[in-house]
Amino acid sequence: MPELPEVETTLRGIRPHLIDQSVKAVVVRQRQLRVPVSRGLKSKLKDQVVRDIERRAKYLLFHFDCGTLAIHLGMSGRLRVISASVPIDKHDHVDLLFNNGAQLRFRDPRRFGLVVWLGKRPLTSRWLAHLGPEPLSDNFNGDYLYSRAANRRGAVKNFIMDGRIVVGVGNIYASEALHHAHIHPARGAGRISRHRYDDLCVAIKRVLARAIDAGGTTLRDYVSADGVPGFFEQQLAVYGREGSPCGLCSTLIRRRVIGQRSSFFCSQCQH
DNA sequence: CCGGCCACCTGCGGGC
DNA sequence: TGCCCGCAGGTGGCCG
Questions:
Q1: Which tens digits make up the pLDDT trace of A216-249?
Q2: Which nucleotides of chain B are near protein (any atom < 7 Å from a CB)?
Q3: Catalytic one of A2, A5, A122, A185
Q4: How many CB atoms sit inside 10 A of residue A211's CB?
Q5: Is the Cβ atom of A3 within 7 Å of strand C at any atom?
Q6: Nearest CA to the C1' of C10 belongs to which residue?
Q7: Model pLDDT, residue A226
Q8: Mapping DSSP to helix (H, G, I), strand (E, B) and coil, where does residue A111 land?
Q9: Nearest residue: Cα versus C1' of B12
């Protein structure tokens, strides 16, 4: 489910409820996530106060005086603040209960997600240490992308989805940004001009920012209570639109597997 | 360092 | 109905 906009939207949704609150209890129903949830989590967090919550890449970082807890939503994770007594689903793996009555609930059917203790220097942990720049930051720009692409022979789509190059560009927005920038997803990363990397960088920033503004509703399973599909999905130009006409030239959108992931593009507009 | 491939896991929709 | 197949938002790790 979550690309970066969903993670950012989740952050904005939960933060006001949890800042300055102290942990009353930790409930772990299923510890077999991508890595096992550590057994000491309960005693470590008990009575600790949430000093801040922030996002780095697609990780949500919960800062306490004694260290930082990271939660990653993987492919199918969701994190919600609920009031007491919402029924427990079979995939509700972890709850953090707070003294103000708030309840942070982590649900993740596929269990590719992560609830992991990073200690006092989270940025040096193995999960965060090697990550590239944030896509919406100023140090992510065309110059940077172009310089990192030198001599790389792999497909540009794989290149921009590599978290060591830039974080937060998932499978949906990689296809979208490349369409915006008129770049073919299979083109070698090292065979793209400086100027076109400017365009690609702007496109990445724009598709992510627009999705965040739309409330991070990228997903097929983000359906509102009255059954209306997620708002932003209707704005996707190519992702999931195989066989329908390109909005720019009416050529039929094609799907092709690149780096074991489905990629969508217009063979007329993108080169 | 780089590219290619695999693994982890559950659910859903389509075809037969 | 029910089974089997392919597909799905991520990313660390391994191998050559």
A1: 765 545 544 444 445 566 689 999 999 999 999 9
A2: 2-11
A3: A2
A4: 26
A5: yes
A6: A74
A7: 40
A8: coil
A9: A221
| Pair A79, A104: CB distance under 8 Å | yes
Q: Which two tokens stand for residue A224?
A: 């509102």
Domains of chain A plus CATH, in order, are: 4-124 (3.20.190.10), 142-265 (1.10.8.50)
Question: Which one from A5, A6, A8, A58 is the annotated catalytic residue?
Answer: A58
Summarize chain A as % helix, strand, coil (round to 5): 25, 25, 50
Alpha helices (runs of H) in chain A, residue ranges in sequence order: 4-18, 41-45, 142-149, 156-160, 171-180, 194-213
Residue A51 scores a pLDDT above 90? yes
Measured CA angle at A81 (ends A166, A215), to 5 deg: 50
Which of residues 173 to 202 on A have a Cβ less than 7 angstroms from any strand C atom?
none
DSSP structural state of residue A260:
T
- Which of chain A's residues 112-131 bind strand C, using a 7 Å CB cutoff? 112, 126-127, 130
The pLDDT score that the predictor gives to residue A223 is: 46
